[in-house]
Amino acid sequence: MCSGAAFTKPWAEPQTATFELRLPRGTGIRVPGRGRSSFGGQATELSRGGSWLSEWTNADVTHAISEDIAELLMELLADGIAVVGPREIRTYLSTFPDLIDIVPIAIEALRRQVPDAKVTLQVYHDPEIEDSYLLVCVRMREYSESVLEAIERAEAEFVDLLRDKGGWIQLTTDFGTAG
After folding, report:
1. Using CA atoms, how far apart are residues 117 and 91, in angstroms rounded to an integer?
2. Domain range for residue 85?
3. Is 34 part of any domain?
């Protein structure tokens, strides 16, 4: 199992993205959230004179996020990614659903830079501070001197997408042997 390296998140304040939902009667409502899923929930309360949705049926939103996470984990497994602690990963992604779309981008970048690596995904808990993040770990049969540079290049491909997100994705290796 990989262990995480210490790092500092360069962006402290998460912001919420918005997308526009078109209701059957043509009513446009801006909804805080993600753009990947079309939530089938119903508005239970709208602010007067404005277009902000103040409350969604929680079960519908949670269900849509859970489906996205399950789909992501199934895709990762099908692509040969070792998913370590899937319940913990689901919990983390439920807390930070804006990372669901970034995980495949991070792994694709890593695969381009280190194509022969065995890749694992897990949640890492920093023992020194109260923080956790998704850890994407690389293991290889043989390591070249350039593997750390390749990991850094892969991370550079997606790290800007983490700006304004509450969670984090860290790429690393523990120099263990793939097998």
Report:
1. 26
2. 18-177
3. yes
Residue 9 lies in a domain: no
Per the document, the length of the chain is 179
CA-based nearest residue to 155, from 5, 17, 34:
5
Distance CA 116, CA 81 (A): 12
Per-residue confidence (pLDDT) for residue 52, from 0 to 100: 37
Residue 49 token pair = 């004179």
Task: Report the relative pairing of strands 131-140 and 169-177 from DSSP bridges.
Answer: parallel
Helix (H) or strand (E) holding 123: strand 118-126
Residue 162 one-letter amino acid: L
Q: pTM of the predicted model, to two decimals?
A: 0.67
Nearest CA to 77 out of 95, 103, 99 is that of 103
Give me the number of domains the chain comprises. Answer: 1
Per DSSP, the residues of 157-179 read HHGGGGTT-SS-EEEEEEEEEP-
* Sequence-ordered list of residues with C-beta below 8 angstroms from that of 51, at least 6 positions apart, any chain: 28, 29, 30
What confidence tens digit (pLDDT) does each residue in 48-105 have? 343 334 344 445 556 678 889 999 999 999 999 999 999 999 999 999 999 999 999 9
- Cα(134)–Cα(144) distance, integer angstroms: 25
130, part of any domain:
yes
**Secondary structure class of 81 (helix, strand, coil):** coil
Grade residue 2 by pLDDT with cuts at 50, 70 and 90: low
